[in-house]
Amino acid sequence: MSNGGNMKLVKVVLVLLVSLQMFGQVEQSSDAYNNLGLPAFYYELLNYKDQNSSLTRVDALVQVPFNSLQFIRDGSGFKAEYTVTVSVYSKEKENLLTEKLWNEKISSQEFDQTHSRSNFNLSLKSFLLQAGEYVFVISVEDKDSRKKSLYEVKFTVKQFEHPVDVSDLLFIGNKTVVNGKEKIFPNISKIISTAEGKLSVYAEVYADSATLVLLKYYVSSKEKKTIVEKTTEKDLQKGINSITLESDSVTLPLDNYVFTLAVDDMNSSKKVSTSKVFFSRIEGVPPTIINVDKAIAQLIYLATTTELDSIKGGKTSEAKLERFLNFWKTKDPNKATPENEAFNEYYRRVEYANLHFSHYTEGWKSDMGMVYIILGAPNSVDRHPFEYDSKPYEVWEYYQINRQFIFVDSTGFGDYRLTTPFYNDLNQYR
Predict the structure, then answer these.
(1) What pTM did the predictor assign?
(2) Per-residue pLDDT reduced to its tens digit, 183-198
(3) Tell me: domain 162-285, CATH 2.60.40.3880, correct?
C-alpha cells in the first residue's frame, strides 16, 4: 500500500473518533475525567476569617459542568440530580472530623445545553475549623447513572493572627448587579481565556484597626518571571475589607501562571502575601493543550506532511496558531454546535496516552500511544506480564476493523514495542 493510501486509511479511521465508543481494558477515560479529558467537576477550598469566632471559615465550592451529568427527560425539559459530599479528615486521615452531604437538582429546556461544558451548577458549603493540616475528600455522584468522581487533597487551614492579614484568592468569572449590590460569580476552574485578556480576582483583607496599606499584585510565569505588576494604596477599615483586583489587556501565551497579592502595612511595615495558580487557555481549544508547537507536532497521526509543513510554516506564533485552528475547523463533524468533537477527542487521546504510556519517551510518541490515538481504546486487551517462556506482551483487539496489535516488552522495564506491522509502514506515523 502506498503512503498516500495509508494516510487515507488512517483518516477514515479517525472519522470514527466521535462515532465509535470502543471500550476495553485500556479505558476511554478514568473516573476523574470525562470524555473531553477534563475534570468531571471543579472544586475550590478557600480560607476566610470568621467574624464571630477564633476559628477559620473554609468555603468549599463545587462546580459541576452539565456534560458531566446524565440528564433524563422531565416533562417538556430535562433534569439531572447529583449528590455532593465533602469530608474533612485529620492530617493522616485517621479520623473523620466532619462531613457535609447535600443534593443538587438542575433542569434545562434545551437538550443541546445538557451536553455543554460552559453550563454548570455551582454550590457552596462552609466549615469552621482550627488552623492546621487536614485532608479533604470531595465527591460528586450522579443519581441516575450512579457514576461517582472524587478528589482527595491535603489542605492547610490558615491562622489569621497578624494585625493585617489576607484571605485566599478567588478568581472571578463575571460580575452583575442585583438589587443595587454587586454580585460576583466565581471562576472555579481558574481557566482564563486569552481572548478576554482580563484578570479579575477577589480577596478579603483583615485589619485590627484602620490603617493604610500598599497592595502589590503581580502575575509570574512558572520560571518566576514577572509578567504583569501593579501597585496601589488603600485605606483599610477595621474588620473585613473586600477588594477586587483587576488587570485589563493581559496577553498571556498558553501556559500556567501564578497570581500573587502582597499586602504591606505602611504603619507597622509588616507584610503578608498569598498566591494562586491559574491557567491561560484559548476558547474552543481543549484545555489539555498548553503548548501550541507541541500540539502541532502531535498531529503527526492525522495531518498529511503537506498540512503539517503548512502549519509549522507560519512566520509567527500567531500565524501558526491560526493555521492550527483552521486545520481543526475542517475536521469539525458538526459545525452547528459550539464544540468540535473531533478536536476534543483527538487531544483527549493524546492526554490519555501521556498519562498511561509514557516511559522512556512521552506517551503520545510510544507505540501504544500511537495505536491508541489513531484507533481509540481496543475492544479487548490480553495481558501476559509474567510468561515463563516469553517476554511480557500485550495483545490489543479491534473488532470493527478486524485487526490485532501485539506489544512486547523486550527490556523487561515496561517499554512495550509494537511487533506487528502497522499498515505496512510504522515510521510514517512518527
Answers:
(1) 0.74
(2) 889 999 898 876 566 7
(3) yes
